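step=encode ok
step=design start
structure_in=
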């Protein structure tokens, strides 16, 4: 793994995690579950004292965001390392990002229920699914933008990422 892959994967993953968190917080608030619910549920997975609703908790906010951003960075690095193998165009990069994110979504459904069934069950399913799509879109945008910035305008259409 190159240091550029590690750096970009961390940045794109955290950007995707931030967009996913913002989507989830706004969508769950709009659904009546409360703005802070997503970070509370994530925090509850390791700290059972975290609220299970939209109540504000400073500890749950810090812990939930820390866990979410760490996992987002790790997933971002994985996507970047896979996507930058070979000469791939934007469509292939998007396929890698969406494929890896879909696998992470399925793994999350299984693992989160095993770790904390209460918190996992409290997260609205379609909001979580759309959040993963938002994550994949953000990482794809970062990969495509950085690949285009480093390639001459006369380069062939298959842009190395």
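sequence_out=
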């Amino acid at each position: 793994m190159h240091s550029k892959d590690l750096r970009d994967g961390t940045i794109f993953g955290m950007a995707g995690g931030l967009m996913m968190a913002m989507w989830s917080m706004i969508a769950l608030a709009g659904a009546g579950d409360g703005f802070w619910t997503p970070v509370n549920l994530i925090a509850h997975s390791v700290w059972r004292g975290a609220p299970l609703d939209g109540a504000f908790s400073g500890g749950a906010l810090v812990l939930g965001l820390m866990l979410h951003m760490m996992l987002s960075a790790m997933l971002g690095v994985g996507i970047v390392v896979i996507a930058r193998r070979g000469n791939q165009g934007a469509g292939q990069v998007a396929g890698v990002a969406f494929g890896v994110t879909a696998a992470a979504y399925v793994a999350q459904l299984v693992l989160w229920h095993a770790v904390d069934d209460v918190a996992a069950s409290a997260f609205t399913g379609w909001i979580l699914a759309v959040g993963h799509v938002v994550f994949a879109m953000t990482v794809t945008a970062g990969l495509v933008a950085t690949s285009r910035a480093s390639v001459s305008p006369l380069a062939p259409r298959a842009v190395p990422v």
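step=design ok
step=annotate ok -> The chain has one domain: 3-147.
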